[in-house]
Design goal:
With 501 residues, this protein is an alpha/beta fold. It has 19 helices and 15 strands. It starts with a helix and ends with a helix.
Length: 501
């Protein structure tokens, strides 16, 4: 790179000493092209001054440091067409996620770099970063560095995660905890950001770390703050007071629009979500999505196990788990269902018109009548959905077999059970309704196996034949060493074996 004093040496040699371009280039060790360039620039600037141009600006231009063109990100020598294609595909995937509102789980340059290294590509992070995005200088906010003791402070926050579940876009609320002293993180997915999910998240987190932090830090979330009193005073919700009293921790809230007051968890929300879902965001079930999150959290905390022991040693002692169950009562309607949060869940059909107890968990709905369980379903967070179990309607279907074919409970049954009905019992619904009783003792797979044996033998698939087939159990013989008859028989057989040998 030519320096300012070299530029003056070129100009002085040409204009003052009268040297030629070749001589100047040889003595100053600068290329002839560069020498010509600065002589030409200086001549043009001087002519402009003589013709009445702005003297101060032109003199400044004459004495400024030489500038060189920077290579654009796309001109990197280490970025081969194959590498460029991988990076472009990642950026295209980011664009697709943004159109779906999933911008918060887009891959960053560091994620693309890690992906390339995993593929065996030898490349530096700056090369990937320069190619993937244009440089943009931003004025960053200054922060006051804080120090925290082990077990002292834990920060909590919610963030959004949009994932594809069974080819359907679902919006989740991701609850994230971060221990301020060590940045140990924990996360769990929920479908709603309500009080029940808030309490359940704390129960799971305290069980995960095996203790209770002395102080919890929150922003101004509705599940924790009941109302504002004045400009800075906040009144917490009853659930917040009960939770903190039970576990023994104290809590504080951030000032409005001051996310930096819980900066650890603000960063963790983005970090955990991106590490878990930036590469893989499509799953067959919600359980699969949660499993990936759990594995990611375990991987991120893997190198902090020793620090977790230090955190746990300074925390409040662990107490038995708090309860997040919501208990309420409901009346069973004419479709033998109870209603909870605009959704309907079936119970045994003899309970129509009766009052039952509803136990709502974050992932399950359990219905009881006089202490006995009469229904259990996976909870749905859609609206106006019927969740039915065909086993609850056997009594009614036995009296109305014609209603089976178009019934919603049949359509909501598992694919295997529907297949059995369509293939073997479509013309005999009464037999199918009787066969449902077999599911009290056997699984659908066992019933399918029995059907296969009957069809291979050319027998008719009916309730009685299925019951007989499933009732024929083969038991493994067990030798009794204390039985004298068995011992005598064994000795006799050995003698025959010796004679035959």
């Amino acid at each position: 790179m030519i320096e300012l004093d070299k530029k003056f040496e070129v100009l002085q040699g040409y204009y003052i000493c009268g040297k030629g371009i070749k001589t100047i280039a040889r003595e100053s060790k600068v290329s002839k092209t560069t020498v010509r360039k600065y002589i030409r620039e200086y001549g043009a600037q001087k002519d402009e001054i003589l013709s009445g141009g702005s003297k101060s600006e032109i003199i400044l231009a004459m004495t400024e440091v030489p500038k060189y063109k920077k290579r654009e990100p796309g001109q990197s020598r280490v970025i081969t067409p194959e590498i460029a294609e991988i990076i472009k595909n990642c950026l295209k995937e980011n664009e697709r996620k943004r159109t779906l509102g999933q911008e918060k789980i887009c891959m960053k340059s560091i994620d693309i770099y890690e992906l390339l290294r995993e593929k065996g590509v030898q490349i530096s992070y700056p090369s990937v970063n320069n190619y993937a995005k244009a440089a943009a200088e931003k004025i960053k906010e200054a922060y006051i560095k804080q120090t925290y003791e082990y077990g002292e402070v834990c920060e909590f926050d919610w963030c959004e995660a949009k994932l594809m579940i069974a080819k359907k876009l679902v919006t989740f609320r991701l609850a994230v905890f971060t221990l301020a002293a060590t940045n140990i993180r924990y996360g769990i997915l929920y479908r709603t950001e309500d009080t029940q999910a808030f309490i359940d998240a704390h129960i799971r987190f305290f069980a995960y770390i095996g203790g209770v932090p002395q102080c919890m830090v929150y922003d101004n979330m509705k599940v924790a703050i009941a109302k504002f009193v004045g400009r800075s005073e906040k009144e917490s919700t009853v659930a917040m007071k009960q939770l903190s009293t039970y576990y023994g921790f104290w809590y504080r809230f951030c000032n409005i629009r001051k996310a930096n007051e819980k900066g650890h968890v603000e960063r963790s929300c983005e970090y955990v979500r991106r590490k878990a879902y930036s590469r893989v965001s499509e799953f067959e079930s919600e359980e699969e999505a949660q499993m990936r999150l759990t594995e990611t959290v375990g991987r991120l905390n893997a190198d902090k196990i020793d620090k977790l022991e230090l955190e746990r040693g300074a925390m409040l002692p662990k107490v038995p788990d708090y309860s997040s169950i919501v208990r309420t009562n409901g009346i069973v309607d004419k479709f033998s269902c109870i209603s909870y949060k605009q959704n309907h869940y079936s119970v045994e059909d003899y309970l129509v018109g009766k009052e039952v107890e509803i136990l709502a968990y974050t992932d399950e709905i359990v219905i009881k009548c006089e202490g006995e369980e009469v229904g259990r379903h996976k909870r749905t967070y859609e609206n106006h959905v019927y969740i039915l179990d065909i086993m609850h309607y056997r009594r009614t279907l036995s009296r109305k077999p014609g209603a089976l074919r178009s019934s919603l409970c049949l359509k909501e049954s598992c694919e295997e059970l529907r297949g059995i009905y369509e293939k073997y019992f479509r013309s005999s619904p009464k037999e199918f309704i009787l066969a449902l009783d077999l599911l009290d003792e056997y699984t659908v797979s066992q019933v399918e196996s029995a059907i296969n044996i009957l069809t291979e033998a050319g027998a008719t698939v009916q309730y009685d034949s299925l019951k007989m087939m499933l009732g024929n159990k083969t038991y493994e013989y067990q030798y009794d060493e204390n039985n004298e008859i068995e011992q005598a028989c064994e000795a006799q057989l050995k003698k025959y074996a010796e004679v035959g040998a």
